[in-house]
Amino acid sequence: MSDPSQFIVWPLADGRIMAIAIGVGLAILALAVLIEVRRRRHERKLMREAELRQIRDLFDEREVRGDDRSLLLAIINQYEPEHPARVVSRRLVFDQCMARYFQALRATEGAETIAQRGAQLRDVRSRLGLDYVPIGRRIHSTRELYDGQILWGSPASGLEPRWFHFKTVKVDEAFFYLAAIGKDGTPEFGPGEAIKFRMWREDDARYLFETSVYQVEQEPRVWRVNHADTLTRNQARAHYRIRFDATVRVGILNGTPDEQPVSLEANEAVTQIYGRITSLSGGGMAVHFQQPVPKQVLMRVPFELPDSARPIVAFVRPTGAQNVGGGRSIVRGRFVAMDDETRDAITRYIFLKQKQSASEDSYSL
Fold this sequence. Notes:
Radius of gyration: 31 Å
Structural class: alpha+beta
Helix content: 25-40%
Distance between the termini: 73 Å
Number of strands: 13
């Protein structure tokens, strides 16, 4: 038989020992969590300080000084303290900070102070290079409108809306300013009245939004309008279109009602100017020029599709032109006298890009 003394029986730990063990474990865990939180907080602090140094260097480079610098830094500290560099590098984040700042400012300041701050911060936006929206890219607020943008406005409460024609005469961070144009009469929109707007942004899409009039200046009649930070963007084209970036040498032909291929190919160019194709569809294209182009002409546009066996020479009749400032213009046009083989090649390419875009959107979700 085995000797009973060879077996050692350990007593069970009582409740107090178990409680102490659990308490020590929890304390160690809490200490580890506290250390990790402090470590991350310290890292965020260092990153924030580094971003603020980058911002100050950018201010020096772009000559943002004095009150302008102090005001924007105060806005950053108030509304985007964790990631300050985003405010000076991303248009959307800059817009969001401006929206929150002016919403708070309206509760304490009068119209003139608000307008003065709006103009001041608009100058800061321009110095930071955040005032330019690339052609073909969407906008997210009316702060991204450009001077001369055409809009249609109607009272938001009207059951049968009557639309009036406007253009922007100025845009700052607090308001955008409208003047009535066309033969639609002078609208009697007053302060506080809700207005719904629609507009077509060249080489982009149709936008719908609603906002209100802040003030009306009488001589000349100019409507000072509150910014809208929610815009509905709707496509409005018969053909699916894609962004297409290609610098081209465009031949300008005399306009002719004869759109037969033989007639057009024999037509000599009056002049040639450089442009940049910004969008392409099965029915036409948009071309960005550094100068105005008459609507009555015909354009000969040579370009190449990626992986295409041969270059394409398209004849384009302008259907609309828009001055986008600085003497530049975007001309939209439809293809004329295009053979089926060329149109099929363009359509196949656009379909392929559409599928790739849909696949990328699905992956990003």
